[in-house]
Design goal:
two-stranded parallel sheet
Length: about 200
């Protein structure tokens, strides 16, 4: 939370410029709010073993914030999907924000609210979470820790485009959870900087 507070102060001038560019170049709100699946507090009371779930979302839902990178009213189906590299819904400003991952900056607010950490597995949309839980063994184990803005999976692999991409990321996430520490978090934060600067895996 201390790092998030400092980051918010340092990034505020950049965030104000981004907000102005979004507002001046496309119709709609500056921020994009979306429901995501967060920490499974039930896991905190367990000593271990496999968790049993029926029809639940695997964790507490919360509202995650991003800078808006898509045109408004581009998805009327209500279906939750991944964005593709040639996605026509993305605005010109949004494409730049995604390349440098600057659209994630507002999530420092989620960290300050206790819903996310700086480092941790990326939170997923509820419907996609339910689907992936059925497709990937151990996927729900990611919810044993708070989701993060960046993570071990993010510094090792780009954005998801398929279930196979997610499957590889889950292995990184579980590896992170197994060896989680303050030093490891700091190392991942440092490795996030070149990922942003060199735009690896961005679309």
């Amino acid at each position: 939370m201390v790092i998030a507070a400092l980051g918010l102060v340092l990034a505020l001038p950049v965030m104000l410029v981004i907000a102005a560019l979004i507002k001046l170049t496309s119709r709609g709100p500056v921020l994009f709010a979306q429901q995501r699946v967060g920490l499974d507090r039930r896991a905190l009371s367990r000593s271990g073993g496999n968790s049993r779930r029926r029809m639940d979302l695997g964790g507490a839902q919360f509202t995650m914030y991003k800078f808006r990178t898509m045109y408004v009213d581009t998805d009327t189906s209500g279906t939750q999907v991944w964005a593709a590299s040639d996605d026509g819904r993305i605005t010109p400003v949004g494409r730049v924000l995604r390349k440098f991952r600057l659209d994630e900056l507002p999530q420092v607010l989620n960290v300050l609210r206790g819903e996310m950490n700086i480092v941790g597995p990326r939170p997923e949309q509820p419907a996609i979470f339910v689907y992936l839980r059925e497709q990937i063994e151990g996927y729900q184990r990611r919810q044993r820790v708070r989701p993060g803005i960046t993570g071990w999976a993010q510094v090792n692999q780009g954005y998801d485009t398929s279930v196979d991409d997610v499957r590889r990321k889950v292995r990184y996430d579980l590896e992170y959870i197994h060896g989680q520490s303050t030093l490891e978090d700091l190392r991942i934060m440092l490795r996030t900087v070149p990922v942003m600067l060199f735009r690896r895996g961005a679309h």
